[in-house]
């Protein structure tokens, strides 16, 4: 790792001021991606500004229609939250399947969303539920947020404060992890919203990161059942092809994981 | 250089280190606690697991300065004098180690796991929770046995005199 200067932000204004003063600063949350990336010298920020001690950036709250998760909330706290388990159990289950227990104790939802790794789990839930990403400047909805692999609408000096998920009628996430890395080879989040609309988003498969599957959505809209997907072909076009699996293999996995998710959602 | 202070195994420690110093290097080099191991150095193997403010974390994937002011427990902090922690004792009894390199991380992960699950541990849960700890001797079977036995013993009320 190259040398860097670490500081803790006391509040959002302090974080922005520290970022403004840095030559090439980077905000640090749980660090479970950023620190390994820095160790490999693939990133070398002059300054690291730790956001995790900012009050109000952590925590979970819910009302009748939404669950709002503070950006610095750890995966473990989402996975074990009675509020999340009650309102959107699919998100608690998704969080419980990220990395391993030690990684879940450190990693944060805001970090995951801001990094937008093409195989990260949270983006599937954010896109499938049409969540709002609340920053210190504005609210950006999922469709506008994700802009391709490791790319989002977040400005360099902008800070994610919270993610607001609409509570669906039904939802579930099914992941096929790479047997070695445990990252999603295909992770599919299915959601039936309270207004009846159906959304399906998958991580780990798209060349441009997380994406929706309109054909699967249309089939489930007509008939919310795993059987309804049996004959729906998923096109390999635009899907990743690498040593872990061909685009055709991933396309098939999307259908299989979607069926498992619908069955789990009930 | 930054002066980084924290509580390690109940003892207040302080050392001048670079901000880029990893917690595992702080523990091993700055304060000479070499029980915490570096295996893969890529947050996959879990040999470096310690507890920070009561939670198991991978100390190769955290900066020492991130833990400034925190309370850290390492493998050296588990035993009480000459008496092994119940998880350490169970690893010895069940031959839960072969070469021993992964053992500190396995035990710190196990202690955290037992704390979180209490009496709810079964074999499938233990195996799933060990996802982030790798034993290259492949001695998982006895590691799982040791953790289940320790969990059961730690649940047992003290025998009446």
Automatic annotation (TrEMBL), chain A:
Give the GO molecular function terms: FAD binding; oxidoreductase activity
Which InterPro entries does the protein's record reference?
CO_DH_flav_C, CO_DH_flav_C_dom_sf, Diverse_Substr_Oxidored, FAD-bd_PCMH, FAD-bd_PCMH-like_sf, FAD-bd_PCMH_sub1, FAD-bd_PCMH_sub2, Mopterin_DH_FAD-bd
Instruction: From the record, give the transmembrane residue ranges.
Output: none
Q: Which UniProt keywords apply?
A: FAD, Flavoprotein, Oxidoreductase
Does the record's keyword annotation contain Ribonucleoprotein?
no
Q: Which organism is it from?
A: Prosthecodimorpha hirschii
**Name under which the protein is recorded:** Carbon monoxide dehydrogenase
Q: Where is the FAD-binding PCMH-type domain?
A: 1-170
State if Transferase is listed as a keyword: no
Automatic annotation (TrEMBL), chain B:
Does the record bear Transmembrane in its keywords?
A: no
UniProt GO MF annotations: 2 iron, 2 sulfur cluster binding; metal ion binding; oxidoreductase activity
Pfam families assigned to the protein according to its UniProt record, in alphabetical order: Fer2 (PF00111), Fer2_2 (PF01799)
Q: Do you know which PANTHER family this protein is assigned to? A: OXIDOREDUCTASE WITH IRON-SULFUR SUBUNIT (PTHR44379)
Keywords attached to this entry: 2Fe-2S, Iron, Iron-sulfur, Metal-binding, Oxidoreductase
Entry annotated with the keyword rRNA-binding: no
Domain named 2Fe-2S ferredoxin-type is located at: 2-78
Q: What is this protein called?
A: Carbon monoxide dehydrogenase
Gene3D superfamilies found in the cross-reference section: 3.10.20.30, [2Fe-2S]-binding domain
């Amino acid at each position: 790792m190259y040398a860097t200067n670490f500081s803790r932000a006391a509040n959002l204004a302090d974080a922005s001021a520290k970022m403004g003063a840095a030559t090439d600063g980077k905000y640090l949350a749980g660090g479970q991606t950023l620190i390994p990336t820095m160790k490999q010298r693939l990133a070398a920020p002059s300054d690291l500004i730790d956001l995790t001690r900012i009050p109000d950036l952590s925590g979970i709250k819910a009302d009748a229609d939404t669950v709002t998760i503070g950006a610095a909330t750890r995966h473990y706290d989402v996975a074990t939250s009675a509020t999340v388990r009650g309102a959107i159990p699919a998100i608690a289950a998704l969080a419980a399947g990220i990395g391993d227990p030690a990684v879940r104790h450190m990693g944060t939802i805001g970090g995951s969303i801001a990094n937008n790794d093409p195989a990260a789990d949270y983006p599937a839930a954010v896109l499938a539920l049409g969540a709002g990403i609340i920053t210190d400047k504005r609210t950006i909805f999922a469709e506008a947020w994700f802009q391709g692999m490791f790319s989002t609408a977040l400005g360099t000096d902008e800070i994610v404060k919270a993610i607001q998920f609409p509570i669906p009628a039904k939802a579930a996430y099914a992941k096929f992890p790479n047997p070695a890395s445990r990252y999603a080879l295909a992770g599919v989040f299915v959601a039936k919203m309270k207004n009846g609309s159906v959304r399906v988003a998958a991580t780990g498969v798209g060349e441009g990161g997380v994406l929706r599957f309109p054909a699967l959505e249309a089939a489930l809209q007509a008939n919310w059942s795993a059987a309804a997907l049996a004959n729906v072909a998923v096109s390999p076009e635009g899907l990743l092809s690498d040593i872990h699996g061909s685009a055709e293999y991933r396309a098939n996995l999307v259908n299989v994981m979607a069926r498992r998710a619908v069955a789990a959602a009930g | 250089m930054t002066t980084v202070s924290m509580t390690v195994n109940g003892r207040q420690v302080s050392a001048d280190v670079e901000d880029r110093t990893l917690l595992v290097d702080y523990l091993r080099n700055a304060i000479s606690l070499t029980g915490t191991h570096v295996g893969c150095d890529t947050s996959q193997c879990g040999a470096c697991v310690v507890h920070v403010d009561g939670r198991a974390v991978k100390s190769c994937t955290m900066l020492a300065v991130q833990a400034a002011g925190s309370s850290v427990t390492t493998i050296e902090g588990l035993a009480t004098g000459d008496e092994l922690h119940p998880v350490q004792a169970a690893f010895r009894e069940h031959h839960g180690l072969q070469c021993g390199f992964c053992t500190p991380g396995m035990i710190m992960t196990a202690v955290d796991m037992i704390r979180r699950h209490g009496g709810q541990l079964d074999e499938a849960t233990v195996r799933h929770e060990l996802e982030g700890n790798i034993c290259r001797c492949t001695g998982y079977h006895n590691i799982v046995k040791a953790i289940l036995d320790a969990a059961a013993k730690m649940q047992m009320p003290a025998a009446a005199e």
